[in-house]
Amino acid sequence: MKNLILCLMLVLIVSCNSLDKKKEKYLELSKVELPGSITFSNPFDGAVFPPEFPSPTIMWDDDKSINTHWFVSIKTSQSEGEYCSFVDKREWKPDVLTWDKIKQESKENPATITVIGFDEKNKNTINSGAKIQISVSADSVGAPVFYRAVPLPFSFATSHLDSIKYMLGDISSEEQPKILLENLPVCGNCHSFSPDGKRFAMDVDAFGDKGSYLVSEVEKEVTMSPESFITWSDFQEKSTMALLSQISPNGKYVVSTLDDNEIFESRDELEYSQLFFPIKGILTVYDVDKKTYSSLPGASDTMYVQSNPNWSPDNKSIYFAKGRAVQRKQSGMTYGTGVYDINKFQAMRDSFLTAKKKFKFDVMKILFNEGKGGKAIPVKGASENNKSNYFSKISPDGKWMVFCQAENYMLLQPDSKLYIMPTDGSEEPRLMNCNTSNMNSWHSWSPNGRWLVFSSKIKGAYTQLMLAHVDENGIGSPPVWLENLRVDNRAANIPEFVNVDFNDFNKIIDDFSDVADYNVRGTSKAQFGDFKNAIIDFNKALQINKNDHQAYANRGKAKDELGDLTGALEDLSKAIELNPEESGYYIHRSNTKVKMRNLQGAIDDCSKAIKIKPKDATLYAHRAGIYKMDSKFDKSIEDFSMAIKLDPDYSLYYLHRAQLFNDQKKTDSANKDINKAISLEPKNVKYITLKGIIAKNRGDNKEAIECFKKAIKVNATYYEPYSELAIINEEMGELEESISNFEKAIEHYDKESKKDLALIYNNKGTVYGKLKDYGNAINNFNQALNYWPNSVDAYSNRAFANLNLGRYQDAELDCNTALQIEPGMKKAKIIKEMIRKEQK
Questions:
Q1: Residues 313, 449: Cα–Cα separation, whole Å
Q2: What are residue 322's DSSP bridge partners?
């Protein structure tokens, strides 16, 4: 009976006038000053609810582990008593009737929510407690929210694009949001609706073109037919991501980022599993009626990245994010996320992934002028502040701008905060009250300009949608969690209010996937290393079209990555047969032939590519690299010279030719090339280090030391100048300093290949040998052999150290191993003879 009474108490919610004495006691206790340790996680103190909002789940955390029960009450200014309940878990949801009463009574004055915690064994003592206030606005939201529900991590989503759902949520309903679209076999991304809710546009990677873009009228059922797509690639005739496109308020134009490059990398962590932002791009406008494309003057300077455009509600201005671009000569990229120089690209990418390289954006404003543009002006307060400013969204009445600010980058940043400022610049930006402690981004204004929906990770890795009120003075409220719009095990992102009735937008129909290009889907998977599943998509592409040369080429590259070189060669050859004028296919096949040690065949493929594009410097450089592998150094120099002639301002070509000249003891020519490379990139630590190596090779140790020290000053975490200095220290008899520099080289070594690291350990071991510290010498030779098991020098050096320690059997074993690897090695034979003499 006692348990039954307790159970009834847990669910009983009535006015305090009818409460039993126990509840009255807790209401009296809750009026005193409450001890801390309870914090509310939903809603926040000061939160404002729309009048149509369904009953929320009140949630809290309690640091007092002894608490097993909680007493919850809600007091309004109009109620005679309070609404309250006992619960045995850290949450409570008022029933519909109770919540409706609370909302009705909280429109003019806030309601107070009180939670106190107690241990059932000591019911008369309050262990913890807290109070917050909430209120209900007279302003309705008046529109549903369109958003994506994406599984994490991002690398999984890119490999399972059909698992992404496109949702429409009704803020006034406790029902689950509608799934408008699912099982889409290609990526659908950024979307936008005209303010009147009549026109809809979205990035959709259709027909093998990541520049494909859907433009459609909004109806109960929107059909994604082939005729409803445009392609941004028609403007630049090259691949493009067409990033962050936005349709104009009048629905007549779409503005997007083209001539673009992006950092687009997955991460292992679940919460922030991608880094994605543009590093180069111009704004380009599509005229929906005229079906024409044009760059936007004033936002088309190729020295900058101009992206993330958003319109003013009167169609007269565009706000966008601008930063100094990373040029393709520095990034190693072609267009979109394409790469032509993997070494340059990886160096740049890694600098962003490790946050060593900063990238900041300023918010700019430009007159649209029917596509004629004008002068872009920095928005004061959202620019030139040593922060990254982006996602400028203008309120429907044109009075307010809300934007994101973070330390660096854009889109998905843990420190991203929302700021608001008047568009006339009359006030400094204010940090909004709706910000949570973990990412605030992807915000959208309601059609009436009184509500803001945005994404946050305060609830964990799976991004959730939050709602905040904004009054006529631009004062925002703390947020309310849109808990009914959550989708389990998916991140809710890119929310946007749609100015339609929830029941008038029911479905988006995929009517193009029978001709959808699985090449894009497979390429996305391959980009994140999922080559097996990428091949499945390329197979589907070939089932649709058995003569799809791109699918053969893509499948060939994936097979190459998986080590199926014969299969890769067959597929790439088929791609060439179907499209013999595509130079890239020959280059991919040449890479496969290099792995098969068919260097002449690889060279022949490069020559065929050059015949198709005789003025493409990258093709000559590619062939030069294979000539070098084949020990045809003169031919390699000749090709790098041609590459330099075609692209005289690309420093990497001078570097490669300088290395070749240096290897051939042509130090004057090598020095001339490296000086040119340094003039193009004065702060490139690798170039400065090579200059030192060239100086050392011609006997000028003084200049060499100066170069290595300069390289260290430029970048103290690059290993090679330390290693080179250590070698000179050893030659000059500075043995302790030599060991110190070798240790720094080891500390900062970051190359994937460990052969050079083995050489550093081997060289450090020889210095210990000169100091007659044979124990440490052997330890270093052991490390060298750990990283390079076939190092005959390390075996012979360890043999000599063992000999000096009297370990004759170990020494002879090392000599024999060295001679097995290199039968004619004189050093090993000499040491073996020394062992025999010592043993007599």
A1: 11
A2: 306, 362
User: Which residues pair with residue 131 across a beta bridge?
Assistant: 114
> Side-chain half-sphere of 204: how many Cα atoms within 13 Å?
29
Distance CA 445, CA 449 (A): 6
DSSP H stretches of helix in 249-340: 328-331
DSSP 13-50: --BGGG--HHHHHHHHHTTSPPPS-EEEEES-TT-EE-
Name the burial class of residue 91, with classes exposed (0-12), middle (13-18) and buried (19+) by CB atoms within 10 angstroms of its CB: middle
- The per-residue DSSP string of 180-227 comes to EE---SS-EEEEEE-TTS-EEEEEE--TT-TTEEEEEE--SEEEE-GG
Summarize the confidence of residues 367-382 as an average pLDDT: 93
* Cβ neighbours for 753, distance < 8 A, ≥ 6 positions apart: none
754-782: average pLDDT: 94
- Residue 428 region, left (φ>0) first, then alpha (ψ -120 to 50), else beta? beta
Distances in Å between the Cα of 252 and the Cα atoms of 217, 444, 497 are: 12, 21, 20
pTM of the complete model = 0.67
Can you tell me whether residue 125 is helix, strand or coil?
coil
Q: Report d(CA 383, CA 362) in Å as an integer.
A: 4
Spatial CA neighbour of 83 closest among 50, 119, 114: 114
Neighbours of 753 (CB within 10 A): 9
Q: Which strands make up the sheet holding 480-481, listed edge to edge? A: 440-445, 451-456, 464-469, 480-481
Q: In this structure, what token pair is assigned to residue 593?
A: 């032939």
576-592 pLDDT, tens digit per residue, is 999 999 898 999 999 99
| Cα–Cα distances in angstroms (integers) from residue 343 to residues 261, 350, 606, in the given order | 16, 11, 19
Bridge-partner residues for 75, per DSSP? 112
pLDDT for 7: 32
Cα 285 to chain center, whole Å? Answer: 26
| CB 281 within 8 Å of CB 307 | yes
pLDDT in tens, 398-449: 999 999 999 998 888 999 999 999 999 899 999 999 999 999 999 999 999 9
The separation between CA 179 and the C-alpha centre of its own chain, rounded to angstroms, equals: 27
pLDDT at 30 over 90: no
Contact (CB, 8 A) for 132 and 40: yes
Contacts of 787 (CB under 8 A, 6+ apart): 754, 755, 757, 758, 761
Helix (H, G, I), strand (E, B) or coil at 797: helix
Is 675 in contact with 651 (CB distance < 8 Å)? no
Give the number of other Cβ atoms within 10 Å of residue 782's Cβ.
Answer: 13
Sheet holding 83-87, edge to edge: 48-49, 128-136, 111-118, 69-75, 83-87
768 and 774 in contact (C-beta within 8 Å)? yes
Q: Token pair for residue 699? A: 């006997």
C-alpha 33: how far from its chain's center? Answer: 47
The DSSP letter of residue 436 is: -
Q: Half-sphere exposure (CA, 13 Å, Cβ side) for 743?
A: 9
DSSP code for 240: -
- Which residues 6+ apart lie within 8 Å of 252 measured at CB? 287, 288, 289, 315
Can you tell me the distance from the alpha carbon of 831 to that of 769, in angstroms, rounded to the nearest whole number? 15
Q: Is the pLDDT of residue 292 over 80?
A: yes
- 270 with 244: CB under 8 angstroms? no
Dihedral sign, Cα of residue 56, residue 62, residue 66, residue 71: negative
Instruction: Confirm if 399 and 312 have CB atoms less than 8 A apart.
Output: no
Pairing of the two strands 507-510 and 221-224: parallel
Answer whether residue 799 shows pLDDT above 90.
yes
In whole numbers, what is the pLDDT of the chain averaged over residues?
88
Which DSSP string do the residues of 473-536 spell out, in sequence order? TSPBPPPEE-GGG--TTSEEEEEEE-SS-GGG--EEEE-STTS--HHHHHHHHHHTT-HHHHHH
